[in-house]
Amino acid sequence: MAGKLFSLTSPCFLLSELLPKRSHQYVSSATNSNSLLHNTSPDFSNKTIVFHLETTLLKSSSLFPYFMLVAFEAGGLLRALVLFFIYPLLCLVGRNQALKIMVFVSFVGLRQDKFRIGSYVLSKYFLEDVGNESFSLVMSGKRKVAVSDMPRIMVEDFLKHYLGVDAVRGRELKVFSGYFVGLMEANNVNGVVLDDDKMLSHAVGISSFNEYSLDHQLFSYCKEIYLVSEADKRNWQILPREKYPKPLIFHDGRLAFRPTPLASLAMLMWLPLGIFIFIIRYTSSTILPIHISHAVNSSTGFTTTVSKPKASITKNDKTSGGVLYICNHRSLLDPIFVSYSVMKPVPAVTYSMSRFSEVSSPIKIIRLTRDREKDKKLIEQQLSQGDLVVCPEGTTCREPYLLRFRPLFAEITDEIVPTAIDMQVDMFYGSTDSGIKCLDPVFNLLNPYIHCYVTILDKIPSSQTCKAGGKPRIEIANHLQKEIAKALGFESTILTREDKYTILAGNEGKV
């Protein structure tokens, strides 16, 4: 693996012209073919690794998708359009000039204190672009120092929070009166200090043949420099999710795809037709009977696959009221998918939802207050009138994880039916924790295809409930979380709604 990763086919004297005159040893397959081609990997366990992010860790050679994410998520559709239409110009100018143009278009006019894209959007796409082969070698170092051509604010959270990199050196952005002006400061190494002479003597650099990536003073610390070629990068495999140093559980943003130039073109071409499709779906869901609405929506790519238990769900004759459907929370559409599954409108309770989403919902929405006693009475009152959907996670989770279930529902009724939901979209996420909440239903229905897999599990036996069975409510909540996670192939966590909003939006989830 290492032999392929660090093979050299061009002369090494070019590197010596770029870096200060020191006693560096430039390792190549020509001089160290045995150690690189036949050993599993170089031994970096006691060394500090200085690596160039874009050419060493990321498989893609294009930075355009990352700046498109900044433009769309932080600046909006108009800014994204501008960046897309200047893409041909970016292909004509040099790499350094193209980087400056993308930085200007993406950042100019954005508020510095409101910029959180680096932490809650970009990290996901960086992780999904990491090469498995290069990751293993970079992470084997005792200390890791990352160098990036992109603004530091874009890459620092990903590198430190998810990869555990010790120090990050990226380009600094100029700010005026709290707003980015779209220009970068001159590149320097202020703020990145290697601890002592002993550590400096063990520094190893990993970069590419690209001269621009090596034009950085931090590489002057390195006694050895390994080079990566574009041909080698094309053979890398994407880092599998199970090898992430820290699991990716929370992320935000509207785009559900990697916005490459071609993918961005597809999105922009879809939008006019997508708005028309949105009107059809929205209108049919709000004014037509549910069985007709389901048929109309299915014809537009809004489909549902339902799996039900062999035995029909029957109520205990000794209890009054309806059945409580307990489901995980993937999007605002979850209660609608439950309604499609049982072919009747089933009301739902919610902790927070924009007024527009509530008014435009095709099913009844009961807004909770976060006052435990009041919420309990509201749920009991609604259950006395019929069935009800509750998502005890309290917020959506896009990744294959389940947040901790709040146990209030367990003490209200023994008529509990766990329901597992997995929703797949191909263009837009229909929920956001830091964006404009009233647009959630629009983005939900704007997708070309929306498919939901609904698995209605067996009703909880009376012996396993809180009232009839005497089970603790927390035990019941944890049991249902595990059962739904098992049905979906997801992983249960102890993280809560407050944890998610603290990480993504910087608040405790008050909308």
Entry keywords:
acyltransferase, 5-stranded mixed β-sheet, 16% strand, alpha/beta, transmembrane, 6-stranded parallel β-sheet, 511 residues
Percent helix: 25-40%
Major sheet size, sense and barrel closure:
6 strands, parallel
What is the terminal-to-terminal distance?
Answer: 50 Å
Major sheet: arrangement of strands: 1-8-7-2-3-4
Q: What structural category arises from helix and sheet content? A: alpha/beta
C-alpha Rg (nearest Å) = 27 Å
Strand content: 15-25%
Q: Runs with pLDDT <50, length 5+? A: 1-40
Count of beta strands: 17
Mean pLDDT: 84
User: What is the number of helices?
Assistant: 23
Sum up the overall morphology in one term. Answer: globular
Subcellular location: Membrane
Protein name: Phospholipid/glycerol acyltransferase domain-containing protein
Domain Phospholipid/glycerol acyltransferase: 323-424
InterPro entries: HAD_RAM2/GPAT1-8 (IPR056462), Plipid/glycerol_acylTrfase (IPR002123)
Layout of SSEs?
Elements (H helix, E strand, L loop, with lengths): L1 H4 L7 H6 L6 E2 L6 H5 L10 E5 H5 L6 H12 L1 H9 L1 H6 L2 H13 L9 H4 L1 H6 L4 H8 L3 E9 H11 L4 E5 L1 E4 L2 E6 L12 H4 L2 E6 L2 H4 L9 E5 L1 H4 L27 H27 L2 H10 L2 E6 L16 E4 L6 H9 L5 E3 L4 H6 L4 E3 L4 H12 L4 E3 L10 E2 L13 E10 L14 H6 L4 E7 L16 H16 L2 E2 L4 H8 L7
Parallel strand pairs: 1-8, 2-3, 2-7, 3-4, 7-8, 9-16, 10-13, 10-15, 11-12, 14-17
Antiparallel strand pairs: 5-6, 15-16
Helix pairs in contact: 5-6, 5-8, 16-17
